[in-house]
């Protein structure tokens, strides 16, 4: 089913419910097993470096800050990536990351300050180095210049990703002769979780407890404390919401996707920050008044679809899915259990992103657990995938 075109199409991927973890959560052995699995995964991350998580082969695209935004976007599209480290060739140093959020800020800036036509022409000549000035103008926090040495442990890298709310971490070394910085790679949340899912097979099977019980993700509060938003604290949109309104939500709330729901709260689709890139490619700076219904028809045919799950799915099932598919977020909807209690199948309950999963796995940033014997997990090489 093509989720990108038909508003009636329900999201097509469902995370299978292997077992009803919620109902067995009170059994101590299951709980202990789960805790043991999490501890073993943390230990695995402490015992491996960022280098270990590199794919066998990968491309690294680094953009010069003198490049125009237009060329940078073309480069993204040609290479199928949505972010890249920036390099200042005047100072020969790393200059942060260019991400979709920067493009969103640019769109907002132009939407507010100039007419559309001028925006479209100016964007073509605008250089990446000027993006930080735009962020200052908009009053949004500049992205942190966070970085990590690739020899450091995956556990430390994961902690840094969580602490800085970054979705990816540039890995930098320095040249032993010149002392200059060298960008080695970028560690994404997805790569990190995929590395766990590939290598911690046994541990993942122990992660029986349900996503809802573990409070992984953001869930609708019932009753809602905000009369204007029945799905509080979730940000949602309807098919006739304008793209610009959603762009504004992305920027204001610092989120990367918004579920599209119908009048009953049933999830119809999802609009993501990467979708904005498609619009920009189509020269749609003029087109942000477009309704989501129309914007979704412009999605490329290889859009992977929206992945849904129910609150009783287990963390282990989710990690198994990450192993198979490049999934970045899941929508939690009401299932049969909720329906029995007067709910409605498919109605929005929550959203789970990779940062939620990673935050749970890493635990509190100050946790200090005794180092266990290194896990026997294999360091099976992940398939060759471009970093993004
Ligand atoms: P992300 O950066 O996409 O991983 O999301 C950051 C945090 O925002 C996570 O804790 C998500 O659960 C939460 N989140 C993601 N999307 C939404 C949304 N549409 N409304 C409210 N919270 C969200």
TrEMBL record:
Pfam families: CBS. Residues 140-203, 221-290, 302-367 form the CBS domain. InterPro entries: AMPK_gamma/SDS23_families, CBS_dom, CBS_dom_sf. GO terms for cellular component: cytoplasm; nucleotide-activated protein kinase complex; nucleus. Residues 11-29 have a biased composition (Basic residues). One of its GO terms (molecular function) is AMP binding. Keywords: CBS domain, Repeat. SMART domains: CBS (SM00116). Residues 1-30 are annotated as: Disordered. Belongs to the 5'-AMP-activated protein kinase gamma subunit family. This is CBS domain-containing protein. It comes from Agaricus bisporus var. burnettii.
């Amino acid at each position: 089913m093509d989720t990108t075109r038909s508003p009636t199409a329900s999201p097509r991927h469902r995370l299978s419910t292997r077992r009803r973890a919620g109902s067995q959560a009170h059994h101590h052995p299951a709980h202990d097993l789960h805790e043991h699995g999490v501890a073993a995964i943390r230990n695995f991350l402490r015992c491996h470096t960022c280098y270990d998580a590199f794919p066998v082969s990968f491309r690294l695209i680094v953009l010069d800050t003198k490049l125009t935004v237009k060329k940078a976007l073309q480069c993204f599209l040609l290479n199928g990536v949505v972010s890249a480290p920036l390099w200042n060739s005047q100072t020969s140093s790393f200059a942060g990351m260019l991400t979709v959020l920067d493009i969103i800020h640019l769109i907002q800036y132009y939407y507010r300050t100039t007419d559309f036509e001028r925006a479209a022409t100016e964007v073509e000549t605008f250089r990446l180095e000027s993006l930080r000035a735009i962020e200052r103008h908009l009053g949004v926090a500049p992205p942190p210049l966070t970085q990590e040495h690739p020899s450091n442990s995956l556990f430390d890298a994961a902690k840094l990703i969580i602490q800085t709310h970054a979705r990816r971490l540039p890995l930098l070394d320095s040249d032993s002769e010149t002392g200059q910085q060298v960008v080695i790679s970028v560690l994404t949340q997805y790569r990190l979780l995929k590395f766990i899912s590939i290598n911690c097979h046994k541990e993942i099977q122990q992660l029986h407890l349900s996503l809802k019980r573990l409070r992984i993700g953001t869930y609708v509060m019932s009753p809602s404390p905000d009369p204007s938003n029945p799905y509080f604290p979730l940000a949602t949109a309807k098919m006739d919401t304008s793209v610009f309104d959603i762009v504004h939500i992305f920027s204001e709330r610092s989120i990367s996707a918004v579920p599209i729901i119908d009048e009953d709260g049933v999830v119809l689709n999802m609009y993501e920050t990467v979708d904005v890139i498609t619009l920009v490619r189509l020269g749609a700076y003029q087109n942000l008044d477009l309704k989501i219904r129309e914007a979704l028809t412009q999605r490329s045919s290889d859009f992977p679809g929206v992945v849904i799950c129910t609150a009783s799915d287990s963390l282990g099932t989710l990690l198994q899915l990450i192993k198979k598919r490049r999934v970045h977020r899941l929508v939690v909807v009401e299932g049969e259990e909720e329906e029995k209690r007067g709910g409605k199948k498919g109605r929005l309950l929550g959203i789970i992103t990779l940062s939620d999963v990673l935050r749970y796995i890493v635990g509190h940033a100050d946790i200090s657990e005794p180092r266990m014997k290194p896990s026997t997990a294999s360091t099976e090489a992940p398939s060759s995938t471009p970093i993004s």
